[in-house]
Amino acid sequence: MAVADSPPSEPEARPKVRVGRTPGRLGNRVFQGISTASGIFILIILAAVAIFLLVRAWPALTAASSEFEDIGFMLGRDLWSWVWPLLFGTAISSVIALVVAVPLSIGIGLFISHYAPRRLAQGLGYLIDLLAAIPSVIFGLWGIQWLQPLVSPLFTWLSTNGVTRWLEDNVGPTIFTGYQAPARNILTAGLVLAIMILPIITATVREVFLQTPRLHEEASLALGATRWEMIRQAVLPFGRSGLISATMLGLGRALGETMAVLMVLSPGYLINFYLLQPGQHQSIAANIASHFPEASGLGVDALIASGLILFVMTFGVNLIARWIISRRAEFSGAN
């Protein structure tokens, strides 16, 4: 008996797809536009500052040496003879600050990230962040009222002990030669700057060390490494580029610091390494703040020219730092 063919079944009704814009597309476009505009705005501000400095400094850069003779704070020098000691003082005070602050920052960052208990680490982290928010004038007052009396006996001992005399007799004058109280010298200014940049560097390297892959640390410990060996093998190589970034951030703060150096340092316009003698060095930023209120005419242009040189110096330092970091792209601790 033949079986009748069953009628074909009707196709299943498909759900209707509502044609419209992809969800979130408008928000993505708005966010992209705001981000792009913000980046362009930063470039415009940077270019505007550079153009302003160049235009205002141009009369001083092109003026003859004889035109600066009537400017009292330039001491009868031409522009470059006046700027070089300021540039040297800015550089040496910043180097002193980095030499003191970077090792301390690495130690504090490692203690917070790998040694301290969690509660203590959180408290220290908050304390470091608060320390970074203290105004520079407070650090200047602290340097005058507390640090100078504290380091004055130490500087006196360094400049009068037998080792210093032996060095002077056999080598010549050293950095410890000629100390005079109070300790208003470039070494004290460098120590104040070190305390100022310590929170910035510490906060950055702490976050970089915390980003070290856990598997790298566990692998090092599993191979029998001690905690310090694990840090040396896994944490420090991973955070090297971040450490460079943190150091450059601290250097930028030290190069441009004004009030603390102005309050602590007895100024001078010499190029030497007598770190304990007052009246030997001065920084560009502190010099501008000291002389700008009474400056006029070509004197204002000369001060702005020194600011342009500081701007170029800071910009160059950051470019070098980015170049160093880009060469070590395999360590992404700072990215």
Automatic annotation (TrEMBL):
Coiled coil: none annotated. Signal peptide: none annotated. One of its GO terms (molecular function) is phosphate transmembrane transporter activity. It is found in: Cell membrane. SUPFAM superfamilies: MetI-like (SSF161098). The chain crosses the membrane at residues 39-59, 79-112, 124-144, 186-205, 254-275, 302-325. It is a multi-pass membrane protein. GO terms for biological process: phosphate ion transport. Residues 1-20 are annotated as: Disordered. GO terms for cellular component: plasma membrane. Residues 87-321 form the ABC transmembrane type-1 domain. Keywords: Cell membrane, Membrane, Phosphate transport, Transmembrane, Transmembrane helix, Transport. Part of the binding-protein-dependent transport system for phosphate; probably responsible for the translocation of the substrate across the membrane. Belongs to the binding-protein-dependent transport system permease family. CysTW subfamily. This is Phosphate transport system permease protein.
